[in-house]
Amino acid sequence: MRAGWAICKRELRSFFVSPVAYALLVAWLLCCGGNYGFVANIYSSQPATGGSDNPLTMFFGGTLLFFLPLLVFIPIMTMRLLAQERAEGTLEALLTSPVSERAVVLGKYGAALIFWAALWAPTLIYVWITSRFGDVDLGVVAASYVGVLAVGGFYLAIGVLMSALAPNQVVAATMTFLLLVLLFGIGIFQFMAFDLTRDVFSYVSIWTHMQDFAKGVVDTRALVFDATAAALMIFLAIRTLEWRRLTS
C-alpha cells in the first residue's frame, strides 16, 4: 500500500508540473463552460425542459455535450500512465524493482482518479451560479457528482488497461477512444431495441446511468456495474504487467 501511494504521489507531481495538464484543464473547463452555457440558454427560454427548474439536470448527462469530452479527454489523461514508461524504457526498470504490479497499477489509477476529481472541482461554480437564480437541491447535485466519479472511474480503468497493453501513448489513446466509443454506442441501442433487450442495453448505458444520477436517483445497479467493470479492467492491467515482468 505504501508503494502504491508513493507511485500515486509521483504520478500526481508529473501531472501538475506538466504544461500539458494545465492545457488539458483549460480545454476541459472551456468544454464544460460551453455545455453549461448551452443548457442554461435552453432553460432560460424553456424553463420546464427536463422537468426541472434549473439546467444542472441537463448539464450532467442530458446532452451529448457531456459525453463527447469524456470520450476525448480520458484517453489523453490515461495514455501516458504506463505506455509512456514502456516507450521510454523505464517500465522494465520499475517492474524489476521491489514494487508489485498491483502497487504500480493502483498507484497510477489512483492518481488519474484524483486528477479527474480535480477537473470537476471548478464546475461547482455552476452550482453556485444556478443557486443564485433558482432552487438547487444539494442532494441531487451530490448524486450527480457521484455519477461523475463512478462513470469516470470506469472509463479511467479502461484507459489504464489500454495503456498497459499499448506500445506507446498514441496507440493507447486510440485504443481507449475506440473502446469508449463502442461502449457508448452500445448504450445508445436502448433507444432502438425491442422490449426484450432494451433493459440489457439500458443496464450498460452510461447515458442512462448519468440521467438517473442527475435526477438524484443513486441506482446501486449502476454503481455495481461501474465498480465491477472498473475492477475487471484494473485486474487485467495488473495481469498484463505481471506477464511483461515474466517475459522481460
Largest β-sheet summary: none
Low-pLDDT runs of 5+ residues are: none
SSE-based structural type = mainly alpha
**Strand segment count:** 0
Mean of the pLDDT scores? 83
Strand content: under 5%
Summed up, the domain count is: 1
In which range does the helix fraction lie?
A: over 70%
Give structural notes.
- The chain is mainly α.
- The chain has one domain (2-247).
- 80% of the residues lie in helices and 0% in strands.
- It is built from 13 helices and no strands.
- Helix 1 packs across helix 7, helix 4 (64-78) crosses helix 9 (138-165) and helix 10 (169-188) packs antiparallel against helix 11 (195-204).
- It is globular, with a radius of gyration of 19 Å.
- 35% of the residues are buried.
- The model has no long low-confidence stretch (mean pLDDT 83).
Keywords:
0% strand, 13 helices, globular
Summarize, please:
The protein has 13 helices and no strands. The protein has 248 residues and is mainly α.
Describe the secondary-structure layout.
Elements: H1 2-16, H2 19-45, H3 56-59, H4 64-78, H5 83-88, H6 90-95, H7 101-120, H8 124-133, H9 138-165, H10 169-188, H11 195-204, H12 206-214, H13 220-247
Helix pairs in contact: 1-7, 2-4, 4-9, 4-10, 7-9, 7-13, 9-10, 9-12, 9-13, 10-11
